[in-house]
Design brief:
The chain is of the alpha/beta class. It has one domain: 3-Layer(aba) Sandwich (Rossmann fold), CATH 3.40.50.720. 42% of the residues lie in helices and 14% in strands. A seven-stranded parallel β-sheet has the order 3-2-1-4-5-6-7, sandwiched between helices. Strand 1, helix 1 and strand 2 form a beta-alpha-beta unit. The protein is globular and about 55 Å long. It starts with 10 loop residues before the first strand and ends in a 10-residue tail after the last strand.
């Protein structure tokens, strides 16, 4: 029965693998028997990550690549195909936010740094589209593969102070549905495209707005937890199972879905 959830032997490309989320999923995939291709823009991030992955006994390589550079991604694809001959899974994890595209409580929308808006929307939106174009082409020729994108609770309803990130993740959700439809209509049921929408997890990028220097919860954290029926923040490892499920044969008739992993945040009106 558990074989239906297996990704053993699958070649999985993970962008942003040098980060916390990408690294967590990479370790989970290696433990599950997948062959992991860790992609990051910084070599030093990859060296540490690949060492940790191989110490777990898995097959893993690290390749420097820029998700905003088509030629860079095509070079990565050729390297993967030369080594393993196919690409079964693409996890578009690269993304994030910038301080200048996040408003402080005393700022107005008109104070936002437009250059940071452009960087955030470009990284999250095109950083999903470009890898999907390059690695998705390989999957289309194979007539098989699974692409997983990362959306956000900010794509479900307005969350104050994060306009650039919210707009970009909304675009990711829409693109996920569009590409899922396109792949199925053009190449059959073998190539699937889905996304996860994480709820609230404490990480380096949002720690300052969720946790006070003394370790107590900020007012923003209290609002988040008040709208989260489970009453807690998620642990980053709690995303791993959802991603593996969507990449496995257990999800063979699932495409175009944006799956919340949020402790009920998206379901709760707050009343």
């Amino acid at each position: 029965m558990n074989e239906i959830f297996s990704i053993k032997g699958k070649v999985a490309v993970i962008t942003g693998a040098g980060g916390v989320l990408g690294g967590s999923i990479a370790k989970s995939f290696v433990r599950a028997g997948a062959k992991v291709v860790a992609i990051d823009i910084r070599q030093e991030n990859l060296d540490k990550q690949v060492q940790e992955l191989t110490e777990l006994g898995g097959e893993a390589i690290g390749v420097v690549g820029n998700v905003l550079d088509i030629q860079s991604l095509e070079n990565v694809a050729r390297e993967i195909l030369a080594k393993w001959g196919r690409i079964d899974i693409l996890l578009n994890i690269a993304g994030g936010n910038l301080p200048g595209a996040t408003l402080n409580p005393d700022q107005e929308f008109f104070d936002m740094k437009i250059e940071d808006w452009e960087k955030v929307t470009n990284l999250n939106m095109n950083g999903t589209v470009y890898p999907s174009m390059v690695f998705g082409r390989v999957m289309s020729k194979q007539k098989g593969g699974s692409i997983i994108n990362v959306s956000s609770m900010a794509a479900y309803s307005a969350i104050t102070r994060v306009p650039g990130y919210s707009a970009a993740k909304t675009a990711v959700s829409n693109f996920t549905q569009w590409l899922a439809t396109e792949m199925a209509l053009k190449y059959g049921d073998g190539v699937r495209v889905n996304a996860i929408a994480p709820g609230f997890f404490i990480g380096d990028q949002n720690r300052a707005v969720l946790i006070n220097p003394d370790g107590s919860l900020t007012d923003r954290s209290k609002k988040v937890l008040a709208k989260t029926p489970m009453g807690r923040f998620g642990d980053i490892s709690e995303l791993n199972g959802a991603v593996q499920f969507l990449c496995s044969e257990a999800a063979s008739f699932i495409t175009g879905v944006v799956l919340p992993v949020d402790g009920g945040f998206s379901a709760f009106s707050g009343v």
